[in-house]
Amino acid sequence: MKVLLKLLFLTSVLQFRASAETAGPAQAPVQHVIFVDQSASPGQGDAERWIEAANRMVFEPLRFGDSFIIYGVHDHTAESAPLLEVAVPAVSHDAGMDEIIRARVALRGAREKGAETVRTAVHSTVRSQSTRLIESLRRIQRDSHRRTEVLYLSDMLESTRDLDLERTRLTSANLVALAQSAVDRHGLSRGLLDGVAVYCILDSPPVGVSAKANDRQMLERFWRLILTSVGAKLAGFDSRIQ
User: Fold this and answer.
1) Is 37 helix (H, G, I), strand (E, B) or coil?
2) What is the pLDDT of residue 193?
3) Which CATH code fits 29-238?
4) Where do the domains of the chain lie?
5) How far apart are CA 222 and CA 75, in angstroms?
6) Using CA atoms, how far apart are residues 108 and 99, in angstroms rounded to an integer?
7) Which of 48, 62, 172, 228 has the most crowded Cβ, counting Cβ within 10 A?
8) Cα(186)–Cα(181) distance, rounded to whole angstroms?
9) pTM of this prediction?
């Protein structure tokens, strides 16, 4: 049995080295930042779809050298502790058997812990007076060794005393002014998030439920203005999983 296990481990090492040698130029590792809306505004029917989105967009493609951090979005978005923070160890192409085994165990554990943390978060509504999405942008820290991708699981409706998109209707007349006011109020500087890609998986209200104050097109234009002003790219804004 021990001989068989050693052969299996050796095969695993050889397969890893072969894939590394034939994969071409190494891709830069990714830092994933996930924001989970824990306010009461999204419907409970969105939970399973948001869990699936996190799995398909972050945890399933997670690789050696990647990292992720998960935050809740509520009335203490700016100062609350991360729900989970994990960095998967990188593995060199000439790594030994023990190193590869440890890294694979760590990778599997990261995927499982990440998925469970998102599942718990989307099912845990936080009692809050506001939904502070804009201030979450300051929590995104760029990593010099990883490119950064951000995933929002939210209806993207900022709801604070200064700006309540659950009640304030965005129009072509007020859109730019409201976005600029938000940028100025939160001190968001140009270049703050240069090169960061942002994906938003929105809620999906059931058929027959009355429409919210803002349609998706105007809401997307609002967030695109804010993200562009800090150097980020809005790469996806839809209820469908990318």
Assistant:
1) strand
2) 97
3) 3.40.50
4) 29-238
5) 21
6) 14
7) 62
8) 9
9) 0.87
